[in-house]
Amino acid sequence: MTDNVRLSAGDAAPDFTLPTDTGDSLSLKDLRGRKVVLYAYPAAMTPGCTKQACDFRDSLASLQAAGYEVVGISPDKPAKLAKFRENDAITFPLVSDEDKSVLIAYGAFGEKQLYGKTVTGVIRSTFVIDENGAIEHALYNVKATGHVAKLRRDLGLD
Q1: Over the chain, what HEC string results?
Q2: Does the N-terminal or the C-terminal CB of the chain have fewer CB atoms within 10 Å?
Q3: Catalytically annotated residues
Q4: What is the sign, positive or negative, of the torsion defined by CA atoms of 99, 82, 135, 4?
Q5: How open is the CA angle 25-31-33, to the nearest 5 degrees?
Q6: With contact defined as beta carbons under 8 Å apart, do 4 and 122 qualify?
């Protein structure tokens, strides 16, 4: 699994339909006509992932005002995502990719460095998808802390 696909600006965003934290399902194609910030994170309710989710939550109103929808994706089960949403008042959809097929399609699962060791897991990544379903930005190995502020600057929102 070392041949990670990496998406680039202009690529079609791989479509998906996944279960959410509310028990519904969410399809990327249902968000056509809006810009989407899809961010991949390793595990709900861990310190870095919680910080990142709270940063997105705290920026959600201004991101939505600029036309962006935010969706978080992880391999966590929907029940764990529901608990994450309740614990931290997450106000955007969290989708469950238990078999990691969508994470793999986005290049957000594979080998990564963790504390100096090579491990296989979720690569913390953010994808900005335009209204037509094309990748605008594909950001890999982003930091959990400070990433949302940097993304806002990159998008010209700050």
Answers
A1: CCCCCCCCCCCECCCCEEEECCCCEEEHHHHCCCEEEEEECCCCCCHHHHHHHHHHHHHHHHHHHCCEEEEEEECCCHHHHHHHHHHHCCCCCEEECCCCHHHHHCCCEEEEEECCEEEEEECCEEEEECCCCEEEEEEECCCCCCHHHHHHHHCCCC
A2: N
A3: 49
A4: negative
A5: 165
A6: no
| Cα–Cα distance for residue pair 68/83, rounded to 1 Å | 24
Model pLDDT for residues 37-88, shown as the tens digit of each residue: 999 999 999 999 999 999 999 999 999 999 999 999 999 999 999 999 999 9
Instruction: Please choose, from the candidates 72, 63, 61, the residue with its C-alpha nearest in 3D space to the C-alpha of residue 95.
Output: 72
Tokens read off for 103? 């994470």
Give CA angle at 124 (122, 128), nearest 5°: 120
Task: Name the nearest CA neighbour of 114 among 42, 10, 13, 26.
Answer: 42
pLDDT of residue 3 exceeding 70: no
With tokens 């990719």, the residue in question is 97
Rounded to whole angstroms, the Cα distance separating 109 from 55 reads: 22
